[in-house]
């Protein structure tokens, strides 16, 4: 422990002098926002209070720029992000989350974020929670050149020209998988936030944190949708429901942990409801989704593997492979081990909500998106299940909050100075 503390102290000293950066980062890290000189100064920056006024004003400025940018309209996830960081939304978060007590609440210090490679806007949400909780943020963004990253980064950079004091709190970087860089950035972090799933978490844990540092990890999860067939058939805006489900799934190629991978049908007239639902969705997918041949090959491969290995499962007939549905006669405990994406859905007809308890009694089960009465789910939710952190209407599964994956991120990213 003493050796590690000494190594961290030396790293901090070297970073402040610049030699650490020159030797370890200069040739490996690309900066989208920030630079080597600013990074070398970040260790001397003070943490801020949660929901700092300047930070909130900055986020509102970013929101306005995104809303005014015509390019944003091509990406509903960018628009959703812009809406989330607008003043009215942030004020609501502050009202709900900031504790009114005599203690002093501050950001923990430097937050090192590792964003997932397959969800374009996740890096931005992670950055914002770090800013709102008063931290200095070093965010590794995906290496893939998503257009959403470009749009959001440009809005951040333009807004920073008006809020120069915040330039020491925002660093967006790219680098190839490199343990040496991970080691060094982890050693200076007061909090490490890992979004990349089980494999990424295992890799990052090879890089030590300082003894007082905290780690927040977002492991591999799965989500499901529960649709009451009678509620669906009675709905007058079925095209809106299709769009909501599309945004929950296809918008991220079904890669987000919040994206439903299995659809549970309840109520009467299930067959009729399924026919209408999937027809509406297929029309929307054919119109909007940029489907690549490799996605079709991978999806079919995963579907065939699933039906070979799962009991009483078969692939439903379809027009094409924009949507592949695998009908389940029973819930197999291994069904969620098959991680198809880009429109691969398992389906199950449920007569009693407790039939899917085993599916939800798994710590990997994250979000339930529902269409119908929330009260119909209460027997399941109140049965002591190990999984399910969120129950939200379909169309809202990707709506971000500072309580996520069962974590109170506001509490975990701040520290308290107790005054008595």
Which helices and strands occur, and which strands form pairs?
Blueprint: H1 2-17, H2 19-24, E1 30-33, H3 36-41, H4 53-68, H5 76-84, H6 87-97, E2 104-107, E3 110-114, H7 122-132, E4 136-140, H8 147-160, E5 170-174, H9 179-188, E6 191-194, H10 198-204, E7 214-217, E8 222-228, H11 229-234, H12 238-249, E9 260-266, H13 270-288, H14 293-309, E10 313-315, E11 324-328, E12 344-349, H15 357-360, E13 365-371, H16 378-381, E14 390-393, E15 403-404, E16 407-408, H17 409-412, E17 414-417
Parallel strand pairs: 3-4, 3-6, 4-5, 6-7, 8-9, 8-13, 9-12, 11-12, 13-14
Antiparallel strand pairs: 1-5, 2-17, 10-11, 15-16
Helix pairs in contact: 4-5, 4-8, 12-13
Q: State the shape.
A: globular
Q: Distance N terminus to C terminus?
A: 32 Å
Radius of gyration: 23 Å
What structural class results from the helix and strand content?
Answer: alpha/beta
Query: Roughly what is the average pLDDT, rounded to an integer?
Result: 92
Number of strands: 17
Instruction: Summarize the amount of helix as a percent range.
Output: 40-55%
Give the CATH architecture of the largest domain: 3-Layer(aba) Sandwich
CATH class of the largest domain: Alpha Beta
Poorly predicted runs: 1-10
- Beta-sheet strand percentage? 15-25%
Counted up, domains total: 2
Q: What summary fits the major beta sheet?
A: 7 strands, mixed
Question: Which fold name fills CATH's third level, the topology of the largest domain?
Answer: Aldehyde Dehydrogenase, Chain A, domain 1
- The strand order across the widest sheet is 10-11-12-9-8-13-14
GO molecular function: acyl-CoA dehydrogenase activity
Protein name: Long-chain-fatty-acyl-CoA reductase
Keywords: NADP
């Amino acid at each position: 422990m003493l050796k590690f503390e000494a190594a961290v102290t030396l790293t901090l000293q070297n970073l402040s002098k610049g030699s650490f950066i020159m030797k370890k980062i200069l040739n490996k890290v690309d900066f989208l926002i920030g630079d080597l000189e600013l990074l070398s100064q970040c260790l001397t920056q003070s943490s801020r209070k949660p929901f700092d006024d300047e930070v909130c004003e900055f986020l509102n400025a970013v929101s306005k720029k995104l809303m005014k940018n015509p390019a944003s309209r091509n990406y509903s996830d960018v628009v959703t992000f812009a809406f989330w960081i607008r003043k009215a939304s942030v004020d609501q978060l502050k009202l709900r989350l900031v504790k009114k007590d005599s203690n002093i609440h501050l950001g923990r210090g430097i937050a090192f974020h590792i964003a997932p490679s397959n969800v374009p806007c996740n890096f931005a949400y992670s950055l914002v929670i770090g800013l709102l909780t008063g931290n200095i943020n070093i965010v590794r963004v995906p290496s893939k050149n998503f257009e959403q990253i470009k749009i959001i980064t440009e809005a951040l950079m333009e807004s920073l020209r008006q809020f120069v004091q915040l330039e020491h709190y925002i660093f967006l970087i790219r680098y190839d998988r490199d343990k040496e860089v991970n080691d060094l950035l982890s050693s200076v972090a007061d909090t490490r936030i890992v979004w990349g799933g089980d494999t990424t978490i295992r890799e990052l844990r090879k890089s030590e944190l300082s003894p007082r540092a905290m780690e927040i990890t977002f492991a591999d999860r799965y989500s499901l949708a529960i649709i009451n067939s009678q509620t669906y058939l009675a709905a007058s805006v079925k095209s809106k429901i299709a769009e909501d489900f599309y945004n929950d799934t296809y918008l991220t190629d079904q890669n987000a942990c919040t994206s439903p991978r299995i659809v549970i049908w309840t109520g009467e007239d299930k067959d009729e409801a399924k026919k209408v639902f999937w027809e509406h969705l297929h029309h929307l997918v054919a119109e909007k989704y940029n489907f690549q041949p490799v996605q079709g090959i991978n999806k079919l491969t995963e579907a065939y593997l699933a039906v070979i290995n799962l009991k009483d499962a078969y692939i439903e007939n379809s027009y094409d492979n924009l949507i592949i549905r695998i009908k389940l006669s029973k819930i197999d405990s291994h069904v969620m081990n098959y991680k198809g994406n880009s429109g691969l859905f398992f389906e199950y007809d449920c007569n009693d909500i407790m039939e899917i308890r085993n599916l939800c009694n798994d710590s990997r089960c994250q979000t339930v998106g529902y269409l119908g009465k929330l009260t119909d789910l209460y027997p399941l939710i109140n049965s002591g299940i190990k999984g399910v952190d969120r129950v939200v209407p379909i169309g809202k599964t990707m709506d971000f909050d500072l309580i996520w994956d069962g974590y109170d991120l506001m509490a975990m990213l701040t520290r308290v100075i107790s005054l008595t």
